[in-house]
Amino acid sequence: MTATTALQGLAAEYWEFRLREYPVLAHDLGDTRYPRDLFRESIADYDRRDAEHARLLARLATIPLAELSPGDRITHRLLAREIGEEREHYAFGSHLRPGLFPLGPESAVGFAMQKTAIRHPADAEDFLARLETLPGYFEHHRERLRAGLAAGYRLPGAVRARVVASVTAYCEGPVEAHACYRPLAAAGGRDAAPFEAAQARGRQLIEERVRPAFRGWLDELRGYAPHCRDSVSIREEPDGEAYYGFLARHFTTTTLTPAEIHATGRDEVARIRAAMDEIAAEAGFPGDLPGLRTLIATDPRFVAKTRDELRERMQVLAKRIERRIPEFFGRIPRMTYGIESIPDALSAQLPPAYAQPNPPSGLAAGVFWVTGLPARCPTPMHVPITMHEAWPGHLMHIALLQEMKELPAFRRYGLGNYTAYLEGWAMYCEQLGYDFGLYEDAFARYGQLDMEMWRAVRLVVDSGIHAMGWSRAQAIEFMAAHVTLPTEAVEAEVDRYIGWPGQALGYKIGELKVRGLRERAARRLGASLDLRALHDRFSDAGPVTLEILDEHVEAWISAAEARGV
Fold it and tell me: Relative to the CA of 503, which of 405, 465, 466, 496 has its CA 20 to 30 Å away?
């Protein structure tokens, strides 16, 4: 057996293992082998995965890199990184640490429901069987929460109220409006008659089994209050300092230390602040950036009157953007997307907007979700947030990656391991708004800088909390001084960093890499730079670490130099 054959076989085996372990992923891919499974989240599941990861890593180590093609060497490197980091997560007890905000088990259920399409009566039967598994799913989370307590891992008290509020949203209201009923409600489209019996059983199942499971989990969280820790920093937990260092490496895909990331954030905050001061002077507030912020935060012209008006504005803007896409991109995906409002009950707990990529199966479009609370998304945010989340950002980027059939499946679909690449690209897309001619006045340009400042502040605040000993109040004060967000939005953001250590670091670190590579190409190629070709080069790397992205784009720049193009 050649090294190439051995690597291909191991990569396929690893992916098959992931599909078995994570049935929701299989559902997204249109894989019908696990139609009645939803989640596998018990402690025994994690133990089994670690044993299999150890076995796969041992086999990977026997495949000689020297005998592989350059492309296969990248696959080898990425496979070793992914499986190795899975083992590190397990060793640090990630599955026992209470990561309940902003994405707790109830959110995983909600996202699974959003991506579920029921087209045939057999689909409805399988879906009802999946709903039957939810009581066990919450029992497994209860088991892990209690084991984590025994190991010394505790939920920060600062985020407990948000966790309770998020779960409560799944416990109230009419059954017909429950997240777990929506796929049944939409079943069959205009011809719902074949699904009426399944819908009736679904309503009964939600009332008698699903809702009690959510309520039992809610009771567990309410009873957890005495166990919460006062500290907001992960370093106060067992192995917390080392764990945060690992999370920083994982989310940035670099070897940067928290101290280096903090310093980078400080430098970026200072640079962006200087650019904001120039914009403030242009807008009629020389030397008075707080005055410009106050105007944007309080003037009604910068806030849509209703959630529907906000969504409609975003829809119009998205079409303006799409018209310009072929000028800047040679590769355009086949998949489409839509724009929807985040339900009001969840809008206060979620960011102003987010992308829900189309499932790889192609059975549903992507969705650009926009907050139902217009004050959380003032007008100056509209261009950068749409460029980031929709096209040419996440929804376009991920749709393109899913079309790369030449990549091993774990690379094509395993996007969650490459936050810095994905978020760095999306942030770069915000700045493409200048190339698209969308930042038409000082307020719009301020909006782009404000969004960029938001991510620079994240570097400072996330590392400040988890590596420098910052308090929640200190983090809120720093963030409020540098971004134009309502107080409640700033508090929610800081609580996100408290509850999800390290995740926010990938955005700005990734953007600095992508922007730096464009600047490198422009410096070396000058007027001959083909921006469409460069953008296609970024996307055809596939999901990669920033180090490999650098190598990939550098090879393209060097080849263009050699051709004299």
Answer: 405
Strand, coil or helix: what is 167? helix
Torsion sign across C-alpha atoms 64, 67, 73, 79: negative
Measuring CA to CA, which residue among 112, 100, 241 is closest to residue 179? 112
Q: What mean pLDDT is reported for the chain?
A: 95
Q: Rounded to an integer, what distance in angstroms lies between the CA atom of residue 449 and that of residue 542?
A: 28
Whole-number Å distance between alpha carbons of 390 and 429: 10
Most distant pair of Cα atoms in the chain: their distance: 71
Task: Tell whether the torsion through CA atoms of 51, 53, 56 and 62 is positive or negative.
Answer: negative
If you search the block for the tokens 């009604």, which residue do you land on?
300
Cα–Cα nearest to 389, from 376, 404, 415, 370: 370
Instruction: Show Cβ contacts of residue 8 under 8 Å, excluding neighbours closer than 6 positions.
Output: 408
Here the tokens at position 432 are 């493409």
Q: Is 419 left (phi over 0), alpha (psi -120 to 50) or beta?
A: alpha
pLDDT, tens only, 320-355? 999 999 999 999 999 999 999 998 877 877 788 999
- Is the model's pLDDT at 468 over the cut of 70? yes
Rounded distance between C-alpha atoms, residue 445 and residue 381, angstroms:
10
Question: Within 10 Å of residue 268's Cβ, how many Cβ atoms?
Answer: 21
Output 315-319 pairs: Cβ under 8 A, ≥24 positions apart: 315/339, 317/382, 317/383, 317/386, 318/368, 318/386, 318/390, 318/391
At residue 249, the pLDDT reads 98
The CA-CA-CA angle for residues 310, 311, 316, to 5°, reads: 100
Q: DSSP of 11-50, one letter per residue?
A: HHHHHHHHHHH-HHHHHHTT--S-TT-----SHHHHHHHH
Query: Which residues make beta-bridge pairs with 340?
Result: 369
For the stretch 195-242, pLDDT in tens is 999 999 999 999 999 999 999 999 999 999 999 999 999 999 999 999
Q: With b meaning 16 or more CB within 10 Å and e meaning fewer, what string describes 135-168?
A: bebbbbbbebbeebeeeebbbbbbbbebbbebbb
Residue 287 pLDDT > 90, yes or no?
Answer: yes
Residue 122, classed as helix, strand or coil, is helix
Through-space distance between the first and last CA atoms of the chain, rounded to whole angstroms: 42
Q: State the DSSP code for 333.
A: -
Q: What is the pLDDT of residue 305?
A: 95
